[in-house]
DNA sequence: TTTTGAGTTGTTCGA
DNA sequence: GTCGAACAACTCAAA
């Protein structure tokens, strides 16, 4: 089926945008009519099945992409099922001459995509993949000896030295659409929560989609990049870009982000450099995931296999519910639960607490984040949890144990963030709000707080937990 | 091949 | 209150 009118199928995945989309641009450049498809594939083996918050986002992002495509006279076909069957079936149905997509880097996705490529080639259908979500492909950056980088700083220097991204492309000027095949309705994909509908907080906090991604980026570049180096650590302030879910779903590309910062003349400022290095961490995480595909599942440093994770289900439960008795930890867990997102500084605090105060395996934290974050990303999530645990590449040193009280005092000095998410502590003043168990009864009473009733007592003693953690890490040192 | 300097995000203690 | 050192040892990456 290679008549001149045979369509090109563009398979959308985590690139839910029209601008700067290499696969879409290449499809448009062929001049052939286009069939646009998204496949909800929950059945490919090895898949980390998308979590609930992420599904909510996906629903709205797909709705947004479908609207944008319709505005250009086309239609987005939705399908659910095993992509290894769905894509070839769509090719047969539409008589497509080619399938184009942007790459993904998870082990299961790579295996699946390779299989699809093979299937398509057997029936003489062209299959082409593109880089739509990274500044550099993970196989392009290597040390002098050709090995993948395992340390962030040299990785990032190497990228900056020779791999600055080219100018992002715009939307394709004109798209020639083929008749869209029959698909499933968005509602039938059942991506939204029903009973109960817990997504109210997500709706208040976010607007998925390409247009919204760009307004967030513009607002961030216009007003907050300059001070980013100083304000990014303050969870009560809106100092970060909050682009993570948009980047995860490919509603915006890192190349577009990079150029927006550069166009504004901020790339060489403290704020700009610091911010772009966060994009660098995203790249680095993908680099790690690509070269070490087991990163989400296994300790990067095998000696951590000996670590005794003695935390209990109850402790994990208290952490997930935000009932640890440490206000900055609990505030973060509440923010996550209600908005599907948590400020990065607080992510580090809660992660350190789960691992080093509660001795719960980092994979439990990874799994909870996977289910509850709208920006849940296999590469970033895995790399970050292993970093905190100390089990990862270029990981935090074992003695870096966050003190939840001093972190609260340092980064939420007015207690504004805690007050927002734990209103029952709202009338405590000064440092008291970060350590209510240290406050005398009279003061607590005046603030209307009854510890153990309105708000839990600490479930562990941090000072003791810290000592225990240091001792535990001692036991997994490599034998001399 | 060997050597050398470095390595996101912290805390505590003692001067 | 502020400051520097100690907290380990190891691995990485380049010279």
Describe it.
- By secondary structure, this protein is mainly α.
- It folds into three domains: 8-132, Rossmann fold (3-Layer(aba) Sandwich); 133-167 and 210-291, Serine Threonine Protein Phosphatase 5, Tetratricopeptide repeat; 302-473, DNA Cyclobutane Dipyrimidine Photolyase, subunit A, domain 3 (Orthogonal Bundle).
- Helices cover 46% and strands 6% of the residues.
- The chain is built from 20 helices and five strands.
- It has helices at residues 22-29, 52-71, 83-94, 107-122, 152-162, 200-205, 210-223, 228-231, 244-248, 254-263, 270-291, 313-321, 327-339, 344-357, 362-372, 378-389, 404-411, 416-421, 441-446, 462-475; strands spanning 8-12, 34-40, 76-80, 98-102, 126-130.
- It has a five-stranded parallel sheet with strand order 3-2-1-4-5, sandwiched between helices.
- Strand 1 (8-12), helix 1 and strand 2 form a beta-alpha-beta unit.
- The N and C termini lie far apart (65 Å).
- The model has no long low-confidence stretch (mean pLDDT 95).
- The protein binds a DNA duplex (15 and 15 nucleotides) through residues 143-145, 147, 149-154, 233, 277, 281, 344-345, 348, 352, 387, 393-394, 396-403, 406-407, 466, 470, 473-474, 477-478.
């Amino acid at each position: 089926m290679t008549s001149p009118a045979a369509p090109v199928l563009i398979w959308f995945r985590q690139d839910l945008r029209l601008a700067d989309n290499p696969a879409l641009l290449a499809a448009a450049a062929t001049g052939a009519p286009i069939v646009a498809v998204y496949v909800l594939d929950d059945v490919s083996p090895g898949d980390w099945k998308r979590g609930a918050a992420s599904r909510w986002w996906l629903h709205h992002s797909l709705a947004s992409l479908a609207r944008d495509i319709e505005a250009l006279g086309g239609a987005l076909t939705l399908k659910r099922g095993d992509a290894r069957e769905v894509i070839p079936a769509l090719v047969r149905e539409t008589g497509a001459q080619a399938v184009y997509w942007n790459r993904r880097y998870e082990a299961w996705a790579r295996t699946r995509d390779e299989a699809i490529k093979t299937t398509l080639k057997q029936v003489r259908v062209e299959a082409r993949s593109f880089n739509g979500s990274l500044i550099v492909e993970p196989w392009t950056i290597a040390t002098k000896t050709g090995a993948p980088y395992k340390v962030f700083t040299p990785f990032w220097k190497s990228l900056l030295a020779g791999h600055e991204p080219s100018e992002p492309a715009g939307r394709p000027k004109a798209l020639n659409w083929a008749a869209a095949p029959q698909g499933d309705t968005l509602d039938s994909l059942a991506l939204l929560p029903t009973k109960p509908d817990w997504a109210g907080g997500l709706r208040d906090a976010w607007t998925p989609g390409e247009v919204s991604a760009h307004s967030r980026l513009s607002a961030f570049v216009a007003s907050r990049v300059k001070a980013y180096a100083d304000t990014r650590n303050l969870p009560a302030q809106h100092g970060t870009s909050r682009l993570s879910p948009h980047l995860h779903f490919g509603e915006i590309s890192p190349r577009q982000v990079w150029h927006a910062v550069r166009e504004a003349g901020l790339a060489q400022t403290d704020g700009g450099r610091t911010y772009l290095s966060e994009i660098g961490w995203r790249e680095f995480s993908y680099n790690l995931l690509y070269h070490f595909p087991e990163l989400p599942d296994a300790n990067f440093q095998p000696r951590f296999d000996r670590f005794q994770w003695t935390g209990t289900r109850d402790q994990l439960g208290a952490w997930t519910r935000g009932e640890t008795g440490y206000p900055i930890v609990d505030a973060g867990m509440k923010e996550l639960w209600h908005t599907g997102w948590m400020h990065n500084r607080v992510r580090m605090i809660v992660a350190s607490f789960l691992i080093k105060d509660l001795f719960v395996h980092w994979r439990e934290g990874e799994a909870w984040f996977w289910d509850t974050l709208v920006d849940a990303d296999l590469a970033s999530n895995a790399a970050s949890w292993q970093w905190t645990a100390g089990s990862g590449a270029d990981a935090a040193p074992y003695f870096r144990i966050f003190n939840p009280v001093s972190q609260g005092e340092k980064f939420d000095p007015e207690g504004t963030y805690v007050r927002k998410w734990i209103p029952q502590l709202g009338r405590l003043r000064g440092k008291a709000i970060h350590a209510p168990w240290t406050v005398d009864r009279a003061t607590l009473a005046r603030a209307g707080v009854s510890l153990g009733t309105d708000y839990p007592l600490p479930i562990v003693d941090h000072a003791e937990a810290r000592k225990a953690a240091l001792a535990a890490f001692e036991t997994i040192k490599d034998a001399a």
